[in-house]
Amino acid sequence: MERMGGLFDRIALAMAGKNPWGGSGGADGGNGNDGEGGDTPAGDGGKQPDQPGDRSRGPRNPWLPGGGNGEEPRRSASIEDIFKTRGPEGPRRRPGGPGGPNFRLPPAPGGRSWMPLAVTGVVGLWLAFSMVHQLGPKEQGVVTTFGKYSSTIGSGISLTLPWPIQDVHVEQVSEIRIFQIPEGDAEKLMLTGDQNLVNLSYLVRWSIKDLKQYRFQLAEPENTVREVAEAAMRASVAEEPLDSVFSGEGRSNIETNVRRRMQEVLDAYRSGVQIHGVEIRKTDPPSEVEEAFKAVSAAQQEAETYKNQAEAAAQQVLARAQGDAAAFDKVYEQYRLAPEVTRRRMYYETMERVLSRTDKTIVEANGVTPYLPLPEIKKRAAPVAKPAGGQ
Amino acid sequence: MNQIWQSYKVAIIAMLVALGALLSSVIVVPESEQVVIVQTGNPVRVYNQFRPKVPYGQTDAGVHFRIPFVETVQRIDKRVRDLDMQPQQVLSTDQLRLEVDAFARYRIIDPKRMVRTVGSTENVEAQLSPIFSSVVRQELGRRSFASLLTAERGNTMHNIRDKLDAEAREYGAQVLDVRIKRADLPQGSPLQSAFARMQSAREQEAATTKATGLRDAQIIRAEADAQAAKIYADSFGKDPQFYDFYRAMQSYDTTFGSTESESSIILSPDNEYLRQFRGNR
């Protein structure tokens, strides 16, 4: 407690030079009673830091004029003490852990104040951050001196003058940026040259060509690129009929046109933007008429099916014809060598095949009623039998 | 600290006042701004005014001075700005409606004039916006719907830009470019009728495609039949009599030779087949 009290004294002095609220630490050092400082808001405790015990405890604050420590006229209540005893943090008092309301830095080496070190540190950091710029491989920065463009720095470490004088604005330059129109899967209808509608979505890839133009020329560069893309795309789609928009060739035409148009416009604005490419992601018919479009492709399939079936049938017919003709030709060749014999042979062979598989009835003579096993056959047989009988 | 304050109170205050005065008389003009010095409501000087040919770094941007309290500073954007038009319905000469959304790019080229006429860029936009709309309506309303969509668009845009530019010059602004961002059929009946037209066109296409497919199929079949007939004729025509016999034999085979239906044949003994049956007579 006593040691901490002394520590507090020194830091309190170091921090404020002269503590404007009076030497609260002195009160502690004097009698070890925290409450005393708070009890004397009128400031009569101010004399206590001058007690010999206080002064002998450690090196004096070098910023303070010698001996003038206690003689200052302004005295007031020690707010710290009031807080310590009455404030919400009061009960914790000094033994509270580091980070508590009463945490204090340890004394600087040599017992001097932290103040110069702190100031130097802050200034050093400020200089380091505002003078040294490390840029990544894709980055460039524009350096402005009091707002006026001075130079462009590339990747690596560069030095500039500190902040209020020179400022650096860093931007990803060679990085190819992509945006999609429309964002998400929303329907974006565009009018084609033949006054039809197409639902189209596309990507634009772009990067910064000239950082200083990009930075200073346009108020809203990204928005401008988007709007120009939109205008160029609609103008290009309006030049093509619907079927061409759907076809691969038409799409690549549109892509080239849009890219060319965008680059022309953006160059005319001197925007410092490079368009790398425009890719049409999808071209669909509007959802309202999608069914009709599907019906067309279904009809195309169907027509194709009809043709295929006809082709197949035609092949069959032809093959059949060729087969039949070839068979006849072969037989005919043999027939010509021996017409009568071949003819007979074929006749008997056919009859054999035919008659071996059927029931046969032979009617011998006229007037003989043939026996037929079935009445139906009798009926059927009658007209056949008659001419036979007539012979 | 207090000690210093006590000793040099006057000096410190004097220094602070001097610093304040210096700071309030210094104007830092960035590249993206033009600064108009207004003296008792009157624009007297312009720093970093837009000049088309001057590259960045050689402009008037940087540190400038003014007389505090007497001269006030008005900062005006030097960059190309966006003037967006409210979407407009345009009636073409053929009485078709088109919903048009356009944008213009402009910049302030005469800040003094702008300060005198309207005071701020917001006001420039507020004043130009209705002019923009009406110019677009006028110009596009003179064209047929189809020409709005296609090639004439560029020409129309130039006209609109020139007209708008002429108006903008009054405010010290220059219109660089006007473009149609969107040209759509208005919601409701125009859009619905366009859909209906597209749909009927597709239905017609579907029907035609199907019919064409059927026609093609028929032709393919007929051609095959014709070719087959030619093949048969070429082959069988060599000996029609033998073909008759040959084909009859095949026909008997097919008609009577099938085992599926039971058939009976009643033969007369005079039958050619049974000729040998009787022995040699």
Quickly list its features.
heterodimer, A: 391 residues, alpha+beta, 4-stranded antiparallel sheet, 3-stranded antiparallel sheet, 13 helices, 16% strand, disordered N terminus, B: 281 residues, 8 helices, 10 strands, 23% strand
Describe this structure in words.
The complex is a heterodimer of chains A (about 400) and B (about 280). Chain A has about 400 residues and is an alpha+beta fold. Chain A is about 50% helix and about 15% strand. Chain A is built from 13 helices and 10 strands. Chain A has helices at about 1-15, 25-30, 35-40, 50-55, 80-85, 115-130, 210-215, 220-235, 240-245, 250-270, 290-335, 340-355, 375-390; strands at about 130-135, 140-145, 150-155, 155-160, 165-170, 175-180, 190, 195-210, 275-285, 360. In chain A, the strands form 3 sheets. In chain A, strands 6, 7, 8 and 9 form a 4-stranded antiparallel sheet that branches. A 3-stranded antiparallel sheet of chain A has the order 3-2-5. In chain A, strand 7 (about 190) and strand 8 form a beta hairpin. In chain A, helix 11 (about 290-335) crosses helix 12 (about 340-355). The N and C termini of chain A lie far apart (about 155 Å). Chain B is an alpha+beta fold and about 280 residues long. In chain B, the strands form 3 sheets. In chain B, strands 6, 7, 8 and 9 form a 4-stranded antiparallel sheet that branches. In chain B, a hairpin with a 2-residue loop joins strand 2 and strand 3. In chain B, helix 4 (about 120-140) runs antiparallel to helix 6 (about 155-170). The model of chain B has no long low-confidence stretch (mean pLDDT about 85). The interface between A and B is large, with 112 and 97 residues.
